[in-house]
């Protein structure tokens, strides 16, 4: 068999095996990428690359290596759910770096984060003065969590003793020119109703629409394709 065909077959095998293993390991591998997750991901990816192009390597042995790494990662994740000590060992824990406006330099040294990086992280969260911070923690995944002092936090309706109207998720009625019939029917609406709303802005065909969403207040957001404007159409009248 030509080596090119062998590489193609092995690449396809490694691709689908890697896809299955990633799905089994769960979304935490991406959404909560700790240092340990990073190492596991890089290692499994490296093994998959070896399986793909190193035709002299034993296929089953390489697959066994990938599977072993994935199974160990899954087992540690499952056990870690019920064992806080193991979870701290594998993933680490959050480190307080600012307390009541004071930078905790010793804690920064423990996690080897310079003050310049701390300030940069604070700025990305919209904080330009450390004095405004009640608590700041570096999470195991490397992100920073910030609690501003109470007098620096924005007002909310509850602070002003106001009752806020519930805003649910909008429903997509048109996507890339295609009417989402299931979503439309789930709201008890018809295509005729939708076309009537679009006609309010002289939109004749759904094919002209890039995206149309109906919010819980009865406002229909319509974004037209190309450089055309968007509209917010009230459906309550």
Structure notes:
This protein has 237 residues and is of the alpha+beta class. The protein has three domains: 3-89; 95-152, CRO Repressor; 171-234, CRO Repressor. It is built from nine helices and nine strands. The protein has helices spanning 3-25, 28-31, 35-53, 59-82, 84-91, 105-110, 115-124, 181-186, 191-199; strands spanning 95-99, 102-103, 133-138, 144-148, 171-175, 178-179, 209-214, 219-224, 230-234. The strands form two sheets. Strands 6-5-7-8-9 form a five-stranded antiparallel β-sheet. Helix 1 packs antiparallel against helix 3 (35-53). It is flat and about 65 Å long. The termini are far apart. The mean pLDDT is 83.
Can you give me a brief rundown of this structure?
This protein has helices spanning about 5-25, 30, 35-55, 60-80, 85-90, 105-110, 115-125, 180-185, 190-200, and strands spanning about 95-100, 100-105, 135-140, 145-150, 170-175, 180, 210-215, 220-225, 230-235. The chain has about 240 residues and is an alpha+beta fold.
What is the rounded Rg?
26 Å
The end-to-end span amounts to 70 Å
Helicity, as a percent range: 40-55%
Write down how many β-strands occur, each being a DSSP E stretch of 2 or more residues.
9
Backbone shape: flat
How many helices does DSSP assign?
9
What percent strand?
A: 15-25%
Average pLDDT, all residues: 83
SSE run: HHHHHEEHHEEEEHHEEE
User: Strand sequence of the main sheet, in spatial order?
Assistant: 6-5-7-8-9
Please outline the major beta sheet.
5 strands, antiparallel
Low-confidence stretches: none
Number of folding domains? 3
């Amino acid at each position: 068999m030509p080596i090119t065909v062998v590489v193609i077959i092995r690449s396809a095998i490694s691709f689908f095996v890697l896809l299955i293993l990633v799905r089994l390991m769960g979304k935490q591998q991406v959404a909560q990428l700790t240092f340990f997750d990073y190492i596991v991901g890089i290692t499994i990816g490296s093994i998959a690359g070896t399986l793909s192009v190193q035709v002299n390597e034993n296929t089953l042995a390489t697959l066994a290596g990938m599977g072993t790494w994935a199974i160990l990662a899954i087992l540690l994740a499952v056990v870690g759910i019920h064992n806080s000590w193991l979870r701290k060992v594998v993933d680490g824990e959050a480190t307080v770096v600012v307390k009541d406006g004071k930078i905790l330099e010793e804690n920064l040294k423990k996690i080897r984060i310079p003050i310049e990086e701390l300030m940069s992280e604070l700025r990305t969260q919209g904080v330009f003065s450390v004095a405004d911070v009640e608590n700041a923690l570096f999470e195991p995944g490397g992100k920073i969590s910030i609690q501003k002092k109470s007098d620096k936090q924005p007002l909310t309706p509850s602070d002003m003793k106001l009752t806020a109207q519930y805003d649910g998720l909008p429903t997509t009625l048109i996507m890339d020119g295609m009417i989402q019939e299931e979503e439309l029917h789930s709201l008890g609406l018809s295509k005729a109703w939708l076309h009537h709303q679009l006609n309010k802005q002289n939109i004749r065909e759904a094919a002209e629409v890039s995206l149309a969403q109906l919010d819980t207040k009865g406002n229909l957001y319509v974004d037209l394709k190309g450089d055309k404007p968007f509209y917010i159409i009230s459906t309550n009248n």
